[in-house]
Amino acid sequence: MKKIVFSIMICILTCSVMAQDIKLPQPKKDGGMSLMEALAARKTNRSFSSRPISMIQLSSLLWAATGVNRDDGRLTAPTARNAQQIDTYVYTTTNVYLYIPNENMLKMVAEGDHRSEVGRQPFAAEAPVILVYVANYDKMQGWDNESKAFYGATDCGNIGQNVYLYCAANGLSTVELGSIQRDKIKELLGFNGRAQLAQPVGFPKE
Description:
Elements: H1 2-18, E1 22-23, H2 35-41, H3 55-66, E2 86-91, E3 95-100, E4 105-111, E5 129-136, H4 145-169, E6 173-174, H5 182-189, E7 193-202
Helix pairs in contact: 2-4, 3-4
Protein backbone atom coordinates (compact mmCIF):
# COMPACT_ATOMS: atom_id res chain seq x y z
CA MET A 1 0.00 0.00 0.00
CA LYS A 2 2.82 2.38 0.90
CA LYS A 3 4.48 1.65 -2.45
CA ILE A 4 1.25 2.50 -4.29
CA VAL A 5 0.80 5.77 -2.40
CA PHE A 6 4.46 6.67 -3.02
CA SER A 7 4.10 5.92 -6.75
CA ILE A 8 0.98 8.08 -6.96
CA MET A 9 2.78 10.96 -5.22
CA ILE A 10 5.73 10.70 -7.64
CA CYS A 11 3.34 10.68 -10.59
CA ILE A 12 1.53 13.79 -9.28
CA LEU A 13 4.79 15.63 -8.72
CA THR A 14 6.10 14.67 -12.15
CA CYS A 15 2.90 15.74 -13.89
CA SER A 16 2.95 19.02 -11.96
CA VAL A 17 6.49 19.77 -13.13
CA MET A 18 5.81 18.74 -16.72
CA ALA A 19 2.68 20.91 -16.79
CA GLN A 20 4.97 23.91 -16.42
CA ASP A 21 6.63 23.14 -19.76
CA ILE A 22 4.91 24.26 -22.95
CA LYS A 23 4.57 22.26 -26.13
CA LEU A 24 4.38 24.92 -28.81
CA PRO A 25 1.96 24.75 -31.75
CA GLN A 26 3.41 24.16 -35.19
CA PRO A 27 5.05 27.34 -36.50
CA LYS A 28 3.62 29.07 -39.54
CA LYS A 29 6.19 28.68 -42.30
CA ASP A 30 4.31 29.83 -45.39
CA GLY A 31 2.85 33.05 -46.78
CA GLY A 32 3.68 36.49 -45.55
CA MET A 33 6.13 39.09 -46.78
CA SER A 34 8.89 38.30 -49.26
CA LEU A 35 12.50 38.29 -48.09
CA MET A 36 13.30 41.49 -50.01
CA GLU A 37 10.27 43.23 -48.52
CA ALA A 38 11.27 42.11 -45.03
CA LEU A 39 14.79 43.43 -45.55
CA ALA A 40 13.36 46.75 -46.69
CA ALA A 41 11.13 46.89 -43.60
CA ARG A 42 13.76 45.74 -41.08
CA LYS A 43 14.39 48.30 -38.37
CA THR A 44 15.00 48.80 -34.66
CA ASN A 45 12.00 49.89 -32.62
CA ARG A 46 12.29 50.48 -28.87
CA SER A 47 8.58 51.12 -28.37
CA PHE A 48 6.59 48.19 -26.98
CA SER A 49 2.95 47.65 -26.14
CA SER A 50 1.96 45.36 -23.27
CA ARG A 51 -0.28 43.47 -25.71
CA PRO A 52 0.72 39.78 -25.60
CA ILE A 53 1.76 37.87 -28.68
CA SER A 54 -0.10 34.65 -29.45
CA MET A 55 1.33 31.16 -28.99
CA ILE A 56 1.44 30.60 -32.75
CA GLN A 57 3.34 33.87 -33.14
CA LEU A 58 5.77 32.86 -30.40
CA SER A 59 6.27 29.44 -31.97
CA SER A 60 6.87 30.98 -35.41
CA LEU A 61 9.21 33.61 -33.93
CA LEU A 62 11.34 30.99 -32.18
CA TRP A 63 11.40 28.74 -35.23
CA ALA A 64 12.56 31.67 -37.37
CA ALA A 65 15.19 32.49 -34.73
CA THR A 66 16.75 29.07 -34.35
CA GLY A 67 14.29 26.31 -35.16
CA VAL A 68 14.91 23.02 -36.92
CA ASN A 69 14.45 23.40 -40.69
CA ARG A 70 15.91 20.12 -42.01
CA ASP A 71 15.48 16.42 -41.31
CA ASP A 72 19.06 16.18 -40.05
CA GLY A 73 18.28 18.54 -37.16
CA ARG A 74 20.11 21.59 -38.47
CA LEU A 75 18.75 25.03 -37.70
CA THR A 76 17.49 28.16 -39.41
CA ALA A 77 20.53 30.04 -38.05
CA PRO A 78 24.06 28.76 -38.81
CA THR A 79 26.46 27.87 -36.00
CA ALA A 80 30.16 27.03 -36.12
CA ARG A 81 30.78 23.27 -36.55
CA ASN A 82 27.02 22.87 -36.24
CA ALA A 83 27.59 22.99 -32.48
CA GLN A 84 24.21 24.69 -31.96
CA GLN A 85 25.84 26.30 -28.95
CA ILE A 86 23.53 29.31 -28.63
CA ASP A 87 20.72 28.63 -26.16
CA THR A 88 17.66 30.86 -26.43
CA TYR A 89 15.90 31.71 -23.19
CA VAL A 90 12.41 33.20 -23.31
CA TYR A 91 11.44 35.66 -20.58
CA THR A 92 7.67 36.15 -20.34
CA THR A 93 5.26 37.88 -17.98
CA THR A 94 4.87 34.64 -16.00
CA ASN A 95 8.01 32.47 -16.27
CA VAL A 96 11.37 32.01 -17.95
CA TYR A 97 11.80 29.16 -20.44
CA LEU A 98 14.52 27.49 -22.48
CA TYR A 99 13.58 26.91 -26.11
CA ILE A 100 14.19 23.30 -27.21
CA PRO A 101 14.33 23.44 -31.04
CA ASN A 102 14.21 19.73 -31.83
CA GLU A 103 11.09 19.28 -29.69
CA ASN A 104 9.51 22.65 -30.50
CA MET A 105 8.85 23.24 -26.84
CA LEU A 106 9.59 25.61 -23.96
CA LYS A 107 11.17 24.09 -20.86
CA MET A 108 10.50 26.12 -17.75
CA VAL A 109 13.68 27.09 -15.92
CA ALA A 110 12.50 29.83 -13.55
CA GLU A 111 9.16 30.93 -12.14
CA GLY A 112 7.95 34.50 -12.16
CA ASP A 113 8.36 37.65 -14.21
CA HIS A 114 12.08 38.49 -14.45
CA ARG A 115 11.98 40.80 -17.47
CA SER A 116 13.22 43.77 -15.43
CA GLU A 117 16.40 41.81 -14.64
CA VAL A 118 17.51 41.58 -18.28
CA GLY A 119 18.06 44.97 -19.89
CA ARG A 120 19.47 48.11 -18.35
CA GLN A 121 16.95 50.22 -20.28
CA PRO A 122 13.42 50.49 -18.78
CA PHE A 123 11.67 50.02 -22.14
CA ALA A 124 12.95 46.43 -22.42
CA ALA A 125 10.75 45.20 -19.56
CA GLU A 126 7.66 46.59 -21.32
CA ALA A 127 7.91 43.98 -24.08
CA PRO A 128 5.79 40.86 -23.43
CA VAL A 129 8.71 38.63 -24.49
CA ILE A 130 12.46 39.03 -24.14
CA LEU A 131 14.78 36.56 -25.85
CA VAL A 132 18.17 36.07 -24.20
CA TYR A 133 20.93 34.39 -26.21
CA VAL A 134 23.50 32.42 -24.21
CA ALA A 135 26.72 30.90 -25.53
CA ASN A 136 26.66 27.50 -23.84
CA TYR A 137 30.25 26.50 -23.07
CA ASP A 138 29.19 22.91 -22.35
CA LYS A 139 28.55 22.64 -26.10
CA MET A 140 31.95 24.16 -26.92
CA GLN A 141 34.24 21.58 -25.33
CA GLY A 142 37.79 21.82 -26.66
CA TRP A 143 37.32 25.35 -28.03
CA ASP A 144 39.84 27.94 -26.93
CA ASN A 145 38.68 31.17 -25.28
CA GLU A 146 39.09 33.18 -28.47
CA SER A 147 36.85 30.79 -30.40
CA LYS A 148 34.25 30.79 -27.64
CA ALA A 149 34.15 34.59 -27.66
CA PHE A 150 34.14 34.93 -31.45
CA TYR A 151 31.58 32.27 -32.34
CA GLY A 152 29.48 33.03 -29.29
CA ALA A 153 29.09 36.55 -30.67
CA THR A 154 28.81 35.89 -34.43
CA ASP A 155 26.40 32.96 -34.19
CA CYS A 156 24.25 34.92 -31.77
CA GLY A 157 24.12 37.72 -34.34
CA ASN A 158 22.78 35.29 -36.95
CA ILE A 159 19.87 34.45 -34.68
CA GLY A 160 19.20 38.10 -33.91
CA GLN A 161 18.94 38.98 -37.59
CA ASN A 162 16.45 36.15 -38.15
CA VAL A 163 14.33 37.66 -35.37
CA TYR A 164 14.60 41.12 -36.91
CA LEU A 165 13.34 39.81 -40.25
CA TYR A 166 10.47 37.88 -38.65
CA CYS A 167 9.41 40.99 -36.75
CA ALA A 168 9.64 43.15 -39.87
CA ALA A 169 7.43 40.73 -41.76
CA ASN A 170 4.84 40.50 -38.99
CA GLY A 171 4.49 44.06 -37.70
CA LEU A 172 6.40 43.51 -34.44
CA SER A 173 8.92 45.71 -32.65
CA THR A 174 12.37 44.49 -31.66
CA VAL A 175 15.83 45.70 -30.73
CA GLU A 176 19.08 43.90 -29.91
CA LEU A 177 20.52 44.83 -26.51
CA GLY A 178 24.21 44.44 -25.74
CA SER A 179 23.97 46.35 -22.46
CA ILE A 180 22.34 43.68 -20.29
CA GLN A 181 22.54 42.53 -16.68
CA ARG A 182 24.71 39.48 -17.32
CA ASP A 183 25.37 38.67 -13.67
CA LYS A 184 21.67 38.64 -12.79
CA ILE A 185 20.83 36.56 -15.85
CA LYS A 186 23.48 33.95 -15.02
CA GLU A 187 22.53 33.88 -11.34
CA LEU A 188 18.91 33.15 -12.24
CA LEU A 189 19.52 30.60 -14.99
CA GLY A 190 22.69 28.93 -13.74
CA PHE A 191 24.30 28.11 -17.09
CA ASN A 192 27.95 27.50 -17.93
CA GLY A 193 28.60 30.20 -20.50
CA ARG A 194 27.94 33.84 -21.30
CA ALA A 195 24.77 35.79 -21.92
CA GLN A 196 25.60 37.50 -25.20
CA LEU A 197 22.58 39.59 -26.17
CA ALA A 198 18.94 40.15 -25.34
CA GLN A 199 16.16 40.94 -27.80
CA PRO A 200 12.75 42.22 -26.61
CA VAL A 201 9.87 41.43 -28.95
CA GLY A 202 6.30 42.73 -28.97
CA PHE A 203 3.76 44.85 -30.75
CA PRO A 204 4.70 48.52 -31.19
CA LYS A 205 3.09 50.97 -28.82
CA GLU A 206 0.32 52.86 -30.61
